[in-house]
Amino acid sequence: MTLxxxxxxxxxxxxxxxxxxxxxSGGLDSCVLLHxxxxxxxxxxxxxxxxxxxxxxxxxxxxxxxxHCRQICAxxxxxxxxxxxxxxxGASLExxxxxARYAALAAELGEGAVLLTAQHRDDQAxxxxxxxxxxxxxxxxxxxxxxxxLGRGWLVRPLLDVSRRELETYARVEGLSWVEDPSxxxxxxxxxxxxxxxxxxxxxxxxxxxxxxxxxxxxxxxxQELLDDLARQxxxxxxxxxAPFPWLPLPSLALTPLLGLSPARQRNAMRHWLAPLxxxxxxxxxxxxxxxxRASADAGPIxxxxxxxxxxxxxxxxxxAGDWLRPTPPAQEWHDPSAPLRLPGNGRLLLExxxxxxxxxxxxxxxxxxxxxxxxxxxxxxxxxNERGVPVFVRGRLPLLYRGDELLAVANLPSLDGxxxxxxxxxxxxxxxxxxxx
Length: 438
Known about the structure:
The protein is an alpha+beta fold. The protein has three domains: 3-221, HUPs (Rossmann fold, 3-Layer(aba) Sandwich); 242-320, Chorismate Mutase Domain, subunit A; 332-429, no CATH class. 36% of the residues lie in helices and 19% in strands. The protein contains 14 helices and 19 strands. A six-stranded mixed β-sheet has the order 3-2-1-4-6-5, sandwiched between helices. A four-stranded antiparallel β-sheet has the order 7-10-9-8. ATP binds at residues 25-30.
């Protein structure tokens, strides 16, 4: 089977996509992928092709790469977009550049669009070895997936079963030109050291090392799929018990079903649940999960992770990120209660029904608040919130409506959210859980 036919077979599930974008660096791999797709498009009914070049600006020689990509795309009749990104400085320049690149690529994807990248079998082998040396688990050792969600579309790697040698042969036969990134020779970077120093030594002793490592990644991906199936079964019971506050837009789980699992199954279930929300912690950091379970209920236990926090409250686990981790906003006047009030970092507030008279102000708990209730007299707000089982992390963000020094209503809590005659209600639309992952 020719390289074109193999590529076409791999991309069969994506033939109905609205567009195929090719991530074009200008290097050998992406130039071959672009050339193959442009050739296939002359005889096959493919989605429209488009190329995207990300310019990191990390080295002077890269300033000429966009023009090189323009010339290639012009010759093939493929439109090109060039996007400039700012790479944040940090401990790992490789990681920072990769994150900036994928963020820019994700921003270009419309609904259902496909981004095609040119990672190949040798890259997969390097990835497995690199992660093995870093002590990765099954999920990491499964290597790069052939496809995954990215932004509103999909990232697809159609060349993972193709060796770099095959790509080089194709490029030479077709007379393709490409750029060489001089940073690829810098062995101070871990991936370059593996590619330039370690893999040649391994290949000299085991000629099939790339094939074998890539095959191991496939086996480990199957193992991860089985672990994911088990996690979904274990999480099903924790998801059956609905959250007590439907207006609270936060991922949450009932804790009791998880406590009946072995520690290994707990970790597996939580890895699966946390994966879309945050970068997963390493093995040592899972001690925070044990501390979260063992802490007394009144301690307000928190497990802090890279993308947010896991809180335990009233028998549930709650995931907080984005605005939920920012300070409570200050009090503010509500000059036009007939219109929604934007709460900085805290969603928005509405009055449904007849607007109460007087000058209104929105405040938040400071302690000692008292609310007058029909037939119950003046009641301490803290006790009322305890009776309703409002999670501790919500109480400080729950909007309180005041007229002068009089507390009129507590948003979203029935019988506390307005007068007894139900002539109006205070409705809070909290901020969504903005974890920002895909």
